[in-house]
Amino acid sequence: MDGESRVDAFLRSKNEPGYANQGGYGAPARPVRNGVGIAALIFGILAILTSITVIGGVLLGIVAIVLGFIGRSRFKKREATNGGVALAGIITGALGLVLSIVLVVAGAALFFGSGGSDLVNCVKSANGDQAKIQQCNTQFQQGVTGY
Questions:
Q1: Cβ(69)–Cβ(89) below 8 Å
Q2: 56 and 28 in contact (C-beta within 8 Å)?
Q3: What pLDDT, on the 0 to 100 scale, is given for residue 1?
Q4: Are 44 and 92 a contacting pair, CB within 8 Å?
Q5: CB 68 within 8 A of CB 114
Q6: Tens digit of pLDDT for each residue in 96-107?
Q7: pLDDT at 100 (0 to 100)
Q8: DSSP 52-63
Q9: How buried is residue 4: exposed, middle or buried, by Cβ count under 10 Å (0-12/13-18/19+)?
Q10: Half-sphere exposure of residue 105: CA atoms within 13 angstroms, side-chain side
């Protein structure tokens, strides 16, 4: 190229006849939108960590699952690059949701299996009398612990 740089040769060729309207580099790339997939994973992890509470595990688990599916949809449309993160959000959200439901069912079974229905009936029959309600609680605790 006789000392001429490639850039200079390219620019010179653009100005020569026969090279007009060569076109550009195409449409500009759309920005990557990974935020939803990341949010799904964060909510999924929080759902697992708060699964001991009904609101935490169930609500955050559902949010994680919904965001995860939105993130996967964006990945399939090539609007996002973190399809695996979105999938992990779906999985952790589902785990948090299921774990929370299992804990609630097990807690209810344990409560009613150890005389919880008797406690509920006793408190209802107390009609707001705090002394009777306290007596109901004492009887329930004695029935559960044996003391």
A1: no
A2: no
A3: 47
A4: yes
A5: no
A6: 999 999 999 998
A7: 94
A8: TSHIIIIIHHHH
A9: exposed
A10: 7
32: left (phi over 0), alpha (psi -120 to 50) or beta: beta
∠ CA 43-106-64 to the nearest 5 degrees? Answer: 10
Provide the token pair at 19.
């090279």
Residue numbers of the chain with a pLDDT score lower than 50: 1
- The DSSP annotation for the chain comes to -TT--HHHHHHHHHHSTT-TT---S-SPPPPP--HHHHHHHHHHHHHHHTTTSHIIIIIHHHHHHHHHHHHHHHHHTTS-S-HHHHHHHHHHHHHHHHHHHHHHHHHHHHHHHTTHHHHHHHHHHTTT-HHHHHHHHHHHHHHHH--
User: Tokens standing for 29?
Assistant: 């790339």
pLDDT at residue number 23: 56
- What's the pTM value of the predicted model, to 2 decimals? 0.66
**Using an 8 Å Cβ cutoff, are 41 and 85 in contact?**
yes
CB 92 within 8 A of CB 47: yes
Asked if residues 114 and 69 have their Cβ atoms less than 8 Å apart, the reply is no
